[in-house]
């Protein structure tokens, strides 16, 4: 019996050694095969290392799994249940999760291939279209429209423009002996595209965006297959928010593009109109803007900025950003108030300039001009909403100060005349008190004369009494 036990133990040891040798061989083969396989997959290759590091890591993981299986077989051979049970549980968990890993990897691989194909399709389609030329057409839409309006409104030709076009025509005409010859370095009918580099950048950018969106969707699907809800659920919610925001973002971008085209069109049209009616000349004569600055250009830029702010408010409302919308609304309200206040102040300077031209008296002209400027500045600042109480106080102080100055000037300058008038009143009252009968129906002046000649007045009174 003891011999049989020894032989059975030796047999088990021999089988264990054989199992370990076979496990070592299989693990080495699997490690080598996985390393070679990974190096052949372009998606798993790294720059400069050709995927060798990733292949080595994957091969080591596969070899360790093979070794784990071999050790479990050896433990089963010796009936070591206490050690075998935890390892079997670990191995069951690994092999139970392995289909999910394979499925997630397969989904990610298919999604990666699809994303690469979609990226190449988008880049090829966009490279076939001259995007810079298309955007330049949108930019020149307002210029063309205003050019038509300007050509219809201006009947006289511009000699400078005629000379410029003639010079361009002379530069563009080939010289004798060069007619019909293609440019150096090119072929007839094959002109180089100067916008190729810009088109390539734009197409690469859009292609990478498409690739990234598809990869994100595929990665979230792979996480759902793995069953890792702690990662997949927040990622899915984020993806849903992102996908819901894409149409809104595109619509907001289109709205801003429309606003840019409208601002460009109306700005150019307004600039041509202002230049046509002589706004620059009139404002330069007044001296409101610095020398060399075009007033019509400044007004046009302000109008364009206001239009873009208006469309930006609409875009932020569409995107659902209430804070940014409120800020832009405040900017638009304040900008409108400032613009109208500045227009009022400019009108005051215009009126002051007109007063200076029509009134020749220097003193009166200066007084009226500065009064008009001060009045319109106060009105403009009040409309802007800048320190209403200070403006009211200053305006009231000016009015009260003017009234007080007039009163003081009259009081100090007319002091002697006022004294004479008061003396006459006092004398008249005194004469009336001394001889009240002589002042019945008479004026104070006649009473004064009566007191000077008592006898004459008495005889005159008697004769008048006899006549009556």
From TrEMBL:
<feature type="compositionally biased region" description="Gly residues">
    <location>
        <begin position="452"/>
        <end position="461"/>
    </location>
</feature>
<feature type="transmembrane region" description="Helical">
    <location>
        <begin position="61"/>
        <end position="78"/>
    </location>
</feature>
<feature type="transmembrane region" description="Helical">
    <location>
        <begin position="90"/>
        <end position="115"/>
    </location>
</feature>
<feature type="transmembrane region" description="Helical">
    <location>
        <begin position="6"/>
        <end position="30"/>
    </location>
</feature>
<feature type="transmembrane region" description="Helical">
    <location>
        <begin position="238"/>
        <end position="263"/>
    </location>
</feature>
<feature type="compositionally biased region" description="Low complexity">
    <location>
        <begin position="163"/>
        <end position="196"/>
    </location>
</feature>
<keyword id="KW-1133">Transmembrane helix</keyword>
<feature type="region of interest" description="Disordered">
    <location>
        <begin position="433"/>
        <end position="468"/>
    </location>
</feature>
<feature type="transmembrane region" description="Helical">
    <location>
        <begin position="302"/>
        <end position="322"/>
    </location>
</feature>
<keyword id="KW-0812">Transmembrane</keyword>
<feature type="transmembrane region" description="Helical">
    <location>
        <begin position="390"/>
        <end position="412"/>
    </location>
</feature>
<dbReference type="InterPro" id="IPR045275">
    <property type="entry name" value="MscS_archaea/bacteria_type"/>
</dbReference>
<feature type="transmembrane region" description="Helical">
    <location>
        <begin position="334"/>
        <end position="355"/>
    </location>
</feature>
<dbReference type="Pfam" id="PF05552">
    <property type="entry name" value="MS_channel_1st_1"/>
</dbReference>
<protein>
    <submittedName>
        <fullName>Conserved TM helix repeat-containing protein</fullName>
    </submittedName>
</protein>
<keyword id="KW-0472">Membrane</keyword>
<feature type="region of interest" description="Disordered">
    <location>
        <begin position="149"/>
        <end position="196"/>
    </location>
</feature>
<feature type="transmembrane region" description="Helical">
    <location>
        <begin position="205"/>
        <end position="226"/>
    </location>
</feature>
<feature type="transmembrane region" description="Helical">
    <location>
        <begin position="367"/>
        <end position="384"/>
    </location>
</feature>
<dbReference type="InterPro" id="IPR008910">
    <property type="entry name" value="MSC_TM_helix"/>
</dbReference>
<feature type="compositionally biased region" description="Low complexity">
    <location>
        <begin position="441"/>
        <end position="451"/>
    </location>
</feature>
<dbReference type="GO" id="GO:0008381">
    <property type="term" value="F:mechanosensitive monoatomic ion channel activity"/>
</dbReference>
């Amino acid at each position: 019996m003891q011999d049989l036990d020894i032989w059975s133990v030796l047999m088990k040891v021999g089988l264990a050694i054989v199992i370990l040798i076979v496990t070592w061989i299989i693990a080495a083969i699997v490690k080598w095969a996985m390393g070679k396989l990974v190096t052949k997959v372009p998606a798993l290759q790294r720059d400069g290392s050709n995927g060798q590091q990733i292949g080595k890591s994957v091969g080591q993981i596969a070899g360790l799994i093979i070794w784990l299986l071999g050790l479990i077989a050896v433990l089963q051979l010796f009936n070591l249940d206490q050690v075998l049970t935890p390892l079997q549980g670990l191995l069951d968990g690994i092999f139970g999760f392995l289909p999910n890993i394979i499925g997630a990897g397969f989904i990610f691989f298919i999604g990666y291939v699809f994303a690469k194909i979609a990226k190449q399709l988008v880049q090829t389609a966009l490279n076939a279209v001259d995007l810079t030329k298309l955007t330049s057409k949108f930019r020149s839409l307002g210029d063309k429209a205003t050019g038509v309006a300007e050509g219809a409104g201006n009947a006289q030709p511009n000699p400078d423009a005629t000379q410029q076009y003639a010079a361009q025509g002379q530069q563009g005409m080939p010289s004798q002996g060069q007619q019909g010859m293609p440019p150096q370095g090119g072929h007839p009918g094959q002109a180089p595209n100067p916008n190729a580099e810009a088109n390539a950048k734009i197409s690469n950018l859009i292609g990478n965006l498409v690739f990234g969106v598809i990869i994100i969707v595929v990665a979230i699907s792979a996480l759902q297959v793995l069953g890792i809800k702690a990662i997949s659920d927040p990622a899915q919610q984020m993806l849903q928010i992102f996908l819901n925001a894409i149409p809104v973002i595109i619509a907001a971008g289109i709205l801003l593009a429309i606003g840019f085209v409208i601002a460009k069109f109306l700005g150019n049209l307004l600039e041509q109109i202002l230049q046509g009616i002589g706004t620059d000349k009139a404002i330069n004569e007044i001296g409101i803007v610095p020398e060399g600055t075009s007033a019509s250009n400044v007004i046009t830029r302000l109008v364009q900025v206001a239009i873009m702010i208006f469309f930006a408010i609409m875009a932020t409302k569409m995107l659902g950003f209430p804070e940014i919308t409120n800020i832009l609304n405040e900017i638009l309200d304040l900008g409108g108030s400032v613009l109208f206040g500045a227009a009022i102040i400019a009108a005051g300077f215009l009126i002051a300039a007109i007063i200076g031209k029509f009134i020749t008296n220097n003193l009166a002209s200066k007084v009226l001009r500065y009064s008009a400027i001060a009045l319109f500045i106060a009105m403009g600042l009040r409309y802007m909403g800048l320190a209403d109480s200070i403006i009211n106080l200053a305006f009231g102080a000016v009015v009260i100060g003017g009234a007080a100055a007039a009163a003081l000037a009259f009081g100090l300058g007319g002091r002697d005349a006022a004294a004479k008038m008061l003396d006459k009143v006092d004398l008249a009252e005194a004469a009336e008190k001394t001889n009240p009968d002589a002042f019945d129906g008479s004026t104070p002046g006649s009473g004064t004369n009566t007191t000077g000649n008592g006898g004459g007045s008495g005889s005159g009174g008697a004769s008048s009494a006899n006549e009556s």
